[in-house]
UniProtKB/TrEMBL annotation:
Coiled-coil region list: none
Transmembrane segments: 35-56, 186-205
UniProt lineage: Bacteria, Pseudomonadati, Pseudomonadota, Alphaproteobacteria, Hyphomicrobiales
Catalytic reactions of this protein: ATP + protein L-histidine = ADP + protein N-phospho-L-histidine
Uppermost EC category: transferase
Domain Histidine kinase: 276-485
A GO term for molecular function: ATP binding
EC number(s) from the headed UniProt entry: 2.7.13.3
Short name of one Pfam family: HATPase_c
Keyword annotations from UniProtKB, A to Z: ATP-binding, Kinase, Membrane, Nucleotide-binding, Phosphoprotein, Transferase, Transmembrane, Transmembrane helix, Two-component regulatory system
Keyword flag GTP-binding: no
Name of the protein in its database record: histidine kinase
The organism's place on the tree of life at top rank: Bacteria
Length: 498
């Protein structure tokens, strides 16, 4: 639309189709209209299959009636043979029987009983004795297409005063005309039956299927426009069939979507507030950390005893604030993959996860010094550090010590890293939401952000992280990373449920 048209028609009504234009278009595309058309078409198709044998039977019956009438005429001629048959009477008998000649074969001889004075050339012969269904159908359509004005001979079994067969010669014009009249009657009746049947089927299916489907469709459209509106949730009927199941499942799905949207909206608002609070909290904690560092210079034994706990608490608070800010980002930066010396990286992880002066935690590193993995060093460090810290904290809280094991096995298609600890194992409730934020923590008071961040980073590498096994005294995580060609080893079956 041009600018001049826009000024003349600010509402855009010139380009908008009218309701009268849209209504036939919508009706043509509706399920109801398609159902009605298909019903009429299928009924008409069924009538076609019925018409083919019926027209063949009509032709055979019409011809047998002519044969029977011709034989009756021939019996009258034989009865009056002694007194002589006048030519006028013979012509009248042939005209009433609608035949041109009648012949009967009996006692191994063929006898001409009646014949018109002038005989036309016979162009086709038909034998009704033992004719198959296909032959009768073919002959019927041949008469419809090529018949009219032809002289044909028809043989059939005699009904009176037996013989081998009786043969008549007729003009097939009356037969063809009768077949057309019969076909017209069948066509008219087929149209009436198809319309009546289609109307009944349409009304039944429209009530049972189409109207409920339209109700479901309209509800889906309305719900999509404003999913937060509780009044737009589907109200299922009491039906026990598939339509009722679809309505109930749709209502349940819409309820779950509303709940998820409501939760995400609240989390978004909460996240905005938390990000602001978190920024100020980190500054406060940084100041507290600087002030607490001065406590190390105080010789008071009580201060020296409580200072490490204070340092640890502040470090944990800073780490929690950092993890929260990292998780709140829209997405992590894409990994910058390169070949990373894995042994050096794992030693850094162990140094960061295990306190230097704590002898309760032992570390076992089973990695070849020459081993390398194709990954982002910083992101892989964060993944391993999150898993290692969780394992160390679990062992310290359980029995005060244990062993942290980290190893790597290069398999065809990439590498498989494992991190194991001898802690108490993960509770069943934690396994169900292990990599989900705020619900997947195995520790009391934990947020689960570390595992969620680790899973996101591994997925960004195209890899897989899994809890392979978790029983008292043995918890193992597997990390599968693809190689430079993008191929990755097939993950082993998980044993975490044992």
């Amino acid at each position: 639309m041009s600018e001049e048209q826009d000024r003349d028609d600010p509402q855009g009504t010139a380009a908008r189709p009218s309701l009268q234009t849209l209504l036939p278009r919508r009706l043509a595309r509706s399920l109801s209209a398609q159902l009605l058309v298909l019903t009429v078409a299928f009924v008409m198709l069924a009538e076609v299959f019925i018409y083919v044998p019926s027209i063949a039977n009509f032709r055979a019956t019409w011809l047998m009636d002519r044969i029977n009438a011709a034989q009756l005429a021939s019996l009258a001629v034989e009865a009056a043979a002694e007194r002589g048959v006048m030519p006028e009477l013979e012509a009248e008998l042939l005209r009433n029987a609608e035949v041109k000649a009648v012949a009967l074969k009996r006692d191994n001889r063929r006898e001409l009983l009646l014949a018109s004075p002038m005989q036309d050339m016979i162009v086709a012969r038909y034998d009704l004795r033992g004719a198959t269904w296909l032959e009768l159908c073919y002959d019927a359509f041949e008469t419809l297409v090529f018949g009219g004005g032809r002289t044909v001979a028809v043989a059939g079994s005699p009904r009176f005063r037996g013989g081998e067969f009786i043969e008549i010669v007729i003009d097939d014009t009356p037969l063809r005309q009768a077949m057309f009249v019969y076909s017209g009657n069948v066509l008219f009746l087929s149209i009436v039956i198809s319309i009546f049947t289609a109307a009944l089927v349409f009304l039944a299916l429209n009530r049972a299927l189409v109207i409920p489907m339209m109700r479901i469709t309209e509800n889906m459209v309305r719900f999509r426009q404003q999913p937060e509106d509780a009044s737009r949730v589907m109200l299922p009927s009491q039906r026990r069939d598939e339509i009722g199941t679809a309505e109930r499942e749709l209502a349940a799905m819409q309820g779950e979507i509303r709940q998820a949207l409501r939760q995400k909206t609240r989390l978004a608002a909460l996240g905005t507030a938390v990000s602001k609070i978190n920024h100020d909290l980190r500054n406060i904690l940084a100041s507290a950390q600087l002030i607490s560092d001065r406590l190390t210079g105080i010789d008071d034994p009580q201060v020296q005893k409580l200072a490490p706990r204070l340092f640890t608490s502040i470090d944990r608070a800073i780490q929690l604030a950092t993890d929260t800010m990292k998780f709140g980002k829209a997405e992590e930066a894409p990994p910058r993959k390169q070949f990373v010396p894995l042994a050096d990286l794992v030693h850094e992880v162990c140094d960061a996860a295990v306190p230097a002066d704590d002898t309760r935690i032992r570390t076992e590193i089973s990695i070849d010094p020459e081993e390398q993995v194709f990954a982002d060093a910083d992101q892989l460090f964060r993944v391993l550090l999150n898993l290692a810290r969780n394992g160390v904290e679990a062992m310290l809280e359980a029995d005060g010590g244990g062993t942290l094991s980290i190893g790597c096995e290069m398999v065809p298609g990439g590498g498989r890293l494992y991190i194991a600890d001898t802690g108490p194992g993960l509770p069943v409730s934690a396994r169900a939401h292990l990599f989900e934020p705020f619900v997947g923590s195995a520790r009391k008071g934990g947020t689960g952000l570390g595992m969620a961040i680790a899973a996101d980073l591994v997925r960004a590498h195209g890899g897989i992280i899994r809890l392979h096994q978790s029983i008292p005294g043995h918890t193992v995580f597997h990390i599968y990373l693809p190689g430079p060609d993008g191929q990755m080893a097939e993950p082993e079956a998980d044993l975490a449920a044992e």
